[in-house]
Write a structure and sequence with these properties.
about 15% strand; alpha/beta; 5-stranded parallel beta sheet
Length: about 450
């Protein structure tokens, strides 16, 4: 297979399956040099992209207008592509078991329409072995073709950081692996044509899969350590942020921050690794311990909010609390697996009236996913007894200050400000009269 055959003006095409936070930026990047088909099963998503609108806000209208991607929800179009890149989500179910339905469904579709001589590349986060053990048999069954004889597979883990306009995919080293050395080399050339940061060739697909899944597992464990320290220091009356600032003066201290760990990567990927570990007879104690700590933090935040309300002399039941931010991280619209919802639900258990404002989240998605009616503006249900700053959205930093928070608060008793992300100066908040708490 020759990389030049895929360049614009030549006959071969690349299909990207799944046009979410990972697939769309990749398709737009590949389009700069190659003939690209963008496939998604959601017809509304395809309609929006054809109208140059990306609801994830990862790609600008201008970029969509200027690209030559053929956007489609017609699976038959996949048969026109020789390289097929699968970028569908890999979530977990309510029991924290990997939900393979999206990737298996996408694989079945690809298998039905792929042509002989195709290379199918997976970018979705999976446990080591999934590509060859689960996906290849489906491809063979659906296509009637034989692996390594009629088609090949590869793996190149996505490294997209949603909302990050600095570390875009072209500026992050791409790991690639094929089922043969020749396919690894081909993928190296393909991705290397558009990834300016460079390529790392993994020795095999399982290694590449493992590399991806431990990237987020490592972050999860480091944040879990900070969260546990935060719980300990809170009981001791010590400010965690002040401790971290002091410890960070040593050159080899790794500066992680405590916080709510949600989203579809850091809080999900470790379960793919632990699932596989248990399947081969090993019980992963450290990884699961980290997950338990991080999953507890929403309850911890809610409990400390209630303590501050009581200290402020406010009746807990019937009090009004505003949560600023619902998305799982700052400056994006994605509310999937957000841990802010844990704070919301826990406060509701105390009989508190909880309101949520998020300038980035889509109201219809918040309603559908969590049954929450987002506020149209922060003043809508004011005055409040307490405000929780849950997400580090840009507007919260640039447009809100202590004076504005005071205006939003009830005048009886001290105003309660819960600063999960540690955005504000603690000493100044206390001087301004707030009952202030942060992780």
């Amino acid at each position: 297979m020759n990389i030049k055959d895929f360049e614009k003006g030549n006959k071969e095409k690349i299909a990207v399956i799944g046009l979410g936070y990972v697939g769309l930026p990749l398709a737009v990047l590949l389009d700069k040099k190659f003939n690209v088909i963008g496939f998604d099963i959601n017809p509304e998503r395809i309609k929006e992209l054809k109208n140059h609108y990306d609801r994830t806000r990862e790609v600008t209208s201008e970029d969509l207008k200027n690209c030559g991607i053929e956007f489609t929800n017609n699976p038959e179009k996949i048969s026109q592509a020789k390289v097929i890149i699968v970028t569908v989500p890999t979530p977990i179910d309510k029991h924290n078991i990997p939900d393979l339905k999206p990737i298996k469904s996408a694989t079945k579709t690809v298998g039905r329409y792929m042509q002989k001589g195709s290379v199918v590349v997976y970018e979705s986060t999976v446990y080591p072995g999934l590509t060859e053990e689960e996906c290849v048999p489906i491809l063979e069954q659906e296509s009637g073709l034989k692996w390594k004889k009629d088609f090949n597979v590869g793996y190149s883990p996505e490294r997209v950081n949603p909302g990050d306009k600095k570390h875009t995919i072209d500026k992050i080293i791409k790991v690639v692996a094929g089922d043969t050395p020749e396919i690894t080399e081909f993928l190296s050339q393909l991705y290397g044509s558009v990834i300016t940061a460079g390529i790392h060739k993994a020795p095999d697909i399982k290694t590449a899969e493992a590399a991806k899944v431990i990237e987020n597992t490592q972050r999860d464990l480091n944040i879990a350590l900070m969260n546990e320290l935060s719980v300990i220091f809170n009981k001791m009356g010590i400010d965690t942020k002040a401790v971290l600032e002091a410890a960070s003066t040593k050159w080899n201290f790794l500066r992680f921050e405590p916080g709510l760990v949600g989203g579809h990567c850091i809080s999900v990927d470790p379960y793919y690794l632990t699932f596989k570990a248990q399947a081969i007879g090993h019980h992963p104690e450290v990884i699961l311990a980290g997950r338990r700590i991080n999953d507890y933090m929403g309850k911890f935040v809610a409990e400390n909010t209630v303590k501050k309300l009581i200290k402020a002399g406010k009746a807990v039941k019937g009090s009004k609390v505003l949560i600023l931010g619902l998305t799982f991280k700052e400056n994006i619209a994605d509310i999937r697996n957000t841990k802010v919802i844990d704070v919301y639900r826990e406060l509701k258990e105390y009989g508190i009236d909880v309101f949520v404002y998020d300038p980035f989240a889509y109201p219809e998605e918040a309603k559908e996913e969590y049954g929450i009616d987002l506020l149209g503006n922060i003043e809508e249900k004011s005055p409040y007894d307490a405000i929780i700053v849950a997400v580090k959205h840009r507007p919260f930093i640039e447009e809100l200050d202590f004076q504005k928070y005071k205006e939003l608060m009830k005048k009886d008793g001290k105003p309660v400000l819960i600063d999960i992300k540690g955005l504000y100066n603690k000493e100044k908040a206390i001087r301004e009269g707030f009952l202030y708490w942060r992780l």
